[in-house]
Request: fold
Amino acid sequence: MNDRREVGEWGIKSSPLTRVVWYIILFLLSVIAVVPVIWMLSTSFKPSQEIFAAGIRFIPRRATFSHFIRLWESFPIPRILYNTFIVATATTLAQTTISVLAGYGFARFRFPLREPLFYLCAATMFIPIQVIMVSNYLLMSAWDILNTFFAVVAPQMANAFGIFLMRQHLRTFPEELIEAARIDGANELRVLIQVVLPSLKSVIAAMAILFFVNGWNQYVWPSLVLTEPEQMTLPIWLRQFMHAEGGSEWGMLMAASSLGVIPALILYVLAHRQIMSTFASTGLKG
Amino acid sequence: MRSVFVRTLVKQVFMLILILGLAFSVSAQDVVTIEYWHINSAILGAKAVEQSVARFQELNPNIKVIERFQEGDYGGLLNNLQAAIAAGNPPAVAQVGYNFRLFAFEQLPHKLIADFAATDPDYAAYLESFIEGIPGLGQDGTGLQRAIPLAISVPVLYYNADLFKAAGLDPDQPPRTWDELREAALTIKRETGEYGLGIQVQPNNNWLPQSMIESNGGWILDPQGLPQVSSPEVVEVYELWQKMAIEDQSLPVVTDTEQEQAFMGGRLGMYLKTSAAMKTISNQAAFDLRTGPFPSWGDKQRRLASGGNALFIFAKDEVQQQAAYEFIKFLTSKEGQTIWVLDTGYLPLAQGVQDDPKYLADYFAENPLTKAALDQLPNAVAWLPFPGPRGFEAEQVLVEAREAILNGEPVQAALENAQSRLERLLN
Amino acid sequence: MISKLSLKTRNSLKGLLLVSPALFFFAVFVYRPLIHTAILSFHDWNMVSPTRLFVGWDNYLEMLENPALGKALQNSALYAVWLIGIIILLPILTTAGMTYVHNRVRKMFRVTLFSPTVVSLGIASVMWLWVFNPIGGLLGTIWEELGLAPLNWLSSPKTALVAIVIIVGWKAFGYNMLLLLAGLGGISGEVIDACKVDGADGFGLWLYVILPLLSPTIFFILISTLSMATEYVFTPIHVLTGGGPVNASTNIVFEIWRQAFRWFRVGYSSAIAIAVFLIFFVLMIFQMWLSEKVVSYDER
Reply:
């Protein structure tokens, strides 16, 4: 259990040809992955009249910051980013905590109705938000907490994906280690935090990244409960630039979209480096 | 190890306090406050709304207007409105798209504009200040004034004069009839290799097709409310459309946003689209953009479906209702309309405002593009709402027929099928 | 006091305590509304009318004779099949491939391949609209260069569904790859060494050792893909095709949404939602049951 090398360091036998083929495949997939993103970035720097004029061009003929400047002047961008960050962070913390606790409970304890209760939890991922949102809106309204970030976060604190994922991983955790810690007199929460979680860091981190990304991008529910302009989040704000009746301003739309994607991407790269470096170094100090 | 968790814990608690802190914000009220819901996004009218509200508050210091942009167009606004009504907390004033007009008349509890006739001595004069026929867009079948129209757009012909020249067509003589239009589109395709014509299509309504059909003397629903989509006039419309798409290959079968991109990129010669897009298109087109009237069928009278919205009062409190009425009157006044038109490119509804040098005369002199739309206003008719509990579904039937036809299904059969489905859904 | 209870009871209580926050939030914010939905499914209601007409099983019976709904169900299955290919098989392959490239390059690929994941589906749809546009879009231009007839990705009944699949696959691919990489990170190098001593290496090592060790993650991805196939596709459908042309790209969530929020037939929409939920519930239990036999929850 102590040996956590990077996957590439397993030294799995491979011929040079296999490796070349993989380089090519991964490179092509990477191109598919980034081309639309690059188009978005490049469009956001093109003057409005150049966007569609010149066929496929990734480097603008005359780069301009005009879209960003217009956005910056007309909207409280830092405020919007801050709101989005708060909502995404709060969602991530709540979802991660509850997922770990419930995953541990379902994977490691026997209690009456455990299986049916787990199925009920997991099944919630098949209930579209459109089915339940009006009812939840009325509840928030009755509680008089519309237009609060709490109202955005509360209904999604429990997340079926997270609970399910945690249960899957916690089931494979060696029982002896848990028992050993219990015998040492540690209480359950301590066992979970000090013994179990460290070995699941990579999975929890991956899960948290996904929660954060989803929290960062969510718009259906927030657009219903948040109507104060001071509480606007990025995805709601972005909708301003897609307008069916009046057409779209592509430069503005893409500049605004870039403002939404870049911070999330930077956070991912930072978090990712952190996570991957912990993979190699941390083992269990059992 | 432990310190990391302590730190995370502290962070979590901090976050929680922060969230709770943000959750409670109090606002004082000493004047009448009304909420106004609109779809005027940053690229279409946000500034106009802001300016109108500011000016209105200046004129009426005892009324405070809180304006709220609603995302998702008229449909999105309506959904949020339904939720707010169900929660007992509707906005005082909201825009309702003309396609949802009938639904709002019948289903959403609102304060009638006609009710103000008793208390407002200027009521009759106010309704007369509109261009003739316009108030009708806010009336139900019995002629009762339930709402006030705010925005009107009509379909116009946008065209690329550079492509016209390249194809050897006269850019000063845009096609006037559908025959000329088809001919011009074919010429563009033949001479330049680019598509000749795009027709605005949307996956959930028949706004532009309605103008094509009614201008040809046909009906989607006749004045008695009966579906007539397999009549020869309607068949003729869709047959021409299909021929341009499949036989001539001069009309691309793509989504509307794709056509918009293609047109702005100079790869589409002509584009029949709402006048509401005038501003975004002219901002992004890198060629000699011009506009012309919607083509007619021979010498038949044009009938153009009007897009846009009407203002409804949803306030339940009497003081708020009165304030809402004042606000609506301001938005549709000459001054309000001037602010509105200058920023949005929508058409003015108040009589005389377009020729008045105090208001919009300069604007129309400097913006010949908008002239084509303005000239067509007398041909505007109501955007057809499908009646009954399954009306919206009925609208989709004709959308599906169009999609099938443009993908090659025989016109007559597709429309007959649509006709029988409509008859079932509407009775 | 707790210590007086038997070990078994104490364990039960602890377990229940751990899962109780999740149960609480699901009960209040998912199942309470769902019960409300179930009640509505027996009514005819338009969301705002003060009167709800009780119609018994009518809404459920109507589902049997609605062709668009049948199409939506069929498409949902198609979406699931396509997405299983693109966001399960392909990530498994690339995750394997990642172990064959140099450390530094791998780090780069992790960022490039994951980058679509941070893009919201709304933005992704708009970006891909440009890619698909046959007139001057990326694919359109490539097609033109190759001398092929233009392909109307989003407006042809033959390709609309595939176009939506590509968008969702593009976005969700990185999710699953990240989860698989995290799963690999949980496999001890010692295990691999031990297997190599036993003679397993290369392809065999992957097939017989690593994949089984990853099977809990893979099973999770399978279930979550099923959910994505129904819910993620909603946004691109809504933004780009509106379910068309002629219902070629519609799916069950879009149908539920359209009935309730565009056509205001809340009762009927509720009936579809309940029926679909029950179908998925049964499917999921079956999968879980099956997985207990197939997935190796190796208690090392």
In short: Chain A touches chain B through 48 residues (CB under 8 Å). Chain A has one domain: 7-11+67-281. The domain at 7-11+67-281 of chain A is CATH 1.10.3720.10 (MetI-like fold). Chain A has 13 helices and no strands.
